[in-house]
DNA sequence: TCAAGTTAGTTCGAGATGCTGACCATCGTC
DNA sequence: GACGATGGTCAGCATCTCGAACTAACTTGA
């Protein structure tokens, strides 16, 4: 059955990647860390990012983003700091534990990517990355 | 920022596809239908599929699959019939309402795919499909 | 300059999702 | 026919997500 729709074809490897990365994180002691939290955390910029921006980027409501950031903050992955330019807003920043988790996650991603690259061949792998990046232009509402 | 990891690059268009398809279904009156249900329902074969197989294919526990099939059955999308070859097992089959929903979903998928094809160009689009199908060989635990 | 509308973020309550554990019925095997 | 394996369900709990309603701070216009 190769007539699976592209939605499912995208979802299957996504799911596989997620499982591998979270297994690796759990192995290294980052066992209190969920996919939902990761989807928000991945969108935090180096200078910190506002709740509202985070919510838009992750495509969840402000409430959900707030809830997930609560958890991330309690676990020490991020901190909330006041935004100097707007007293209503707060900048979410990566905290020490978050910075410690990043290389673990990055290593797991790199491992999976290299397996995929080996399976597809370098040329097709680069094309896949290129096509997905291009698709992002019309499917990522955030940018 | 094009250094997004491939997991996120897969997830973003997946999410976009999902949103479009569910909006189309809701427009046509299939408003009681959730992504989780769809992930199970997509794996039902033409001759019906067992709960256990469904659970494996959708990568959820038997319990979760059972729960989702309950809902699908209550909404009239599927039926459970006895498996003639094993009295313990039950075959989940697409029911009338499920069959009615399929063309609506298929049309929405086709529309999104044609937009993506137009954005990428036919050649790259076919390569993307091919790469994703190939990736499925090593990332779909079911098959 | 200050009232009115907008924007950033939170709290609350509820439904959806998905897990583990415990269980029953049936199958296959020895 | 007894016993372990398999197909499936029920119960209980944690997580994810949303809509509604709210507070505080910003912006705009007369």
UniProtKB/TrEMBL annotation, chains A, B:
Keywords: DNA-binding. PANTHER family: HTH-TYPE TRANSCRIPTIONAL REPRESSOR YETL, TRANSCRIPTIONAL REGULATOR, MARR FAMILY. InterPro entries: HTH_MarR-typ, MarR/SlyA-like, WH-like_DNA-bd_sf, WH_DNA-bd_sf. Residues 1-137 form the HTH marR-type domain. This is DNA-binding transcriptional regulator, MarR family. It comes from the Bacteria. One of its GO terms (molecular function) is DNA-binding transcription factor activity. GO terms for biological process: response to stress.
